[in-house]
Known about the structure:
This protein is mostly helical. The protein has helices at residues 14-45, 48-75, 78-101, 107-134, 141-170, 173-189, 216-229, 231-246, 250-259, 266-287, 295-313, 318-345, 352-410.
Amino acid sequence: MPASRSPWRSLRYRSMRWWSVANFVSNAGTWMQLTVQNLLVLQITGSAAAAGLSMSVQAAPALLISVLGGAAVDRWPRKLTAAVSQAVLGAIAFTTAVLVALDLLDMTSLMVLAALTGVVATVDNPACALLGNDLVPAEDVPSAIGVGALVHQAGRLAGAALAGVAVGFLGTSAAYFGNGLSFLFVASVIPFLRPAAGAAKRDVPAPGATGSGTGPDLTVREGLAYFVRRPRLVALAGVTGISSVFGRNYGLTLAVLVTGPLAGGAGSFGTVSTVLAVGGILGAVLGARLRKPSVRLVGALAAAGALLQVVAGLSPSLAVLIALVLPMAVVESVSDTAGTAVLQTDPPPHMRGRVLGVWGSIGTVWSLGGPPALGLLMELAGPRGALVTGGLLIAGAIGAGALLRRRRATAPVLLRTEAHEAPGRPALTPAA
Length: 432
């Protein structure tokens, strides 16, 4: 009997269904808070720069200590780690809500609370991501990731809608109270989750068993060393990195293209954004059908998306651009699902937290450095030039990497020859 390729196959397992519900509630609460956070900063300071600074302060810990958070996830029991981190995030949200309700929140306390949220998130993000994968067999992990992407999008829409209702009827503090309750709900669900038959077993080596010591610094170094020595993870980082810097930031590039050369307005860009969101949802469904994603697939999809980006940059009209935006978003979403599945299943279970920690630091560099680099490129080449140049750089880099890999794979291994032997003869034929 052929294995199921349904994008919803991970939901056959009861614990995964509960985990998806919990994630929806958590995402709705998080986006409800994020929706009002910038408004709150503007109310306190009246400065748009301060609103951006608060987001940067919350993101900064991921750049600096994600590797430590990943190491903690590998050292501690996964379910306990996720439950405690969710409870702590809930406590931070409740604290913020009380300060807002009592009109005691100033910019300093807000920045401190944002930084604390960022620190806890360096543990919570990999713990929750891996906990979901621990519930299903390895071949169903892409489905779990795709379902998670859909839940994320649904929670984002619900959270934005709930924010307007909560603030309109109950005040700004209600959004933080609601987010705190969502964290507590997730923490209460986690103890009842049970892995399905065939799910990966997490077997943490005994302290000192690898001969590398037991200190946290050594544990972090082990994770870094594993990542660097794993060619497919390095290749995945390279593909994702160049795509993140010179592509993907469509909220920036397409906004300038639509309102500039294509002479559209805010409504036109709203249409483009809606098509991007629909494409992301369709891509998550298609990505969930994958069973054994590979870095090669991620690279091929990223290159295809880059070529679509080149064509989009040359769009003569808004209608043509909208027709291209949908496949661009689908390809990007499938590529993201495949890449996440590789990242979370390639390392052995006891190393996955550290690998995600390394990835968190790398991803933060891209997210912080990509928009300024792309903005500079648009200043130099214009929005069309930035899309075309960026797409060609992505496709060219991926193509060059694939060619180099193929040449290395087919290069003959030479043995030392005797005087009567012909030099340079391959030691093994391809058939061997």
